[in-house]
């Protein structure tokens, strides 16, 4: 029959406040860590800031999403271009908007939303946000699409159907 041996282990715990480095205890204090800039680096790519800017612009009321990724000749809106330095960003954004509000109000809200989002998510200083309104859309039928009784016609003189 095989001998069974039983191993017993003893565990000791040390109070971190009473442990000294000579006891072999590992203590971690915030003063022993190097400064954040000495531990490594953070690189934020242009495409990340572009995505943040486009998402922020899309959340502004009256800003419309348009375009298609399927057609290489059309550009999806909102569309942002960014210029970055290690701690600063400049953003140019093209937007489409509805005709329900003054353009300067929409542009101001887009500017503020982008500056806030980029600063919040990247800690970069936003030097400028340039907004270009490339398209304004109305939901109202065009004048030539309306019959004399005020109802939208089923077709216009351009051969389009108004639904």
TrEMBL record:
<feature type="compositionally biased region" description="Low complexity">
    <location>
        <begin position="1"/>
        <end position="22"/>
    </location>
</feature>
<feature type="region of interest" description="Disordered">
    <location>
        <begin position="1"/>
        <end position="38"/>
    </location>
</feature>
<dbReference type="InterPro" id="IPR005531">
    <property type="entry name" value="Asp23"/>
</dbReference>
<dbReference type="Pfam" id="PF03780">
    <property type="entry name" value="Asp23"/>
</dbReference>
<comment type="similarity">
    <text>Belongs to the asp23 family.</text>
</comment>
<feature type="region of interest" description="Disordered">
    <location>
        <begin position="140"/>
        <end position="163"/>
    </location>
</feature>
<protein>
    <submittedName>
        <fullName>Putative alkaline shock family protein YloU</fullName>
    </submittedName>
</protein>
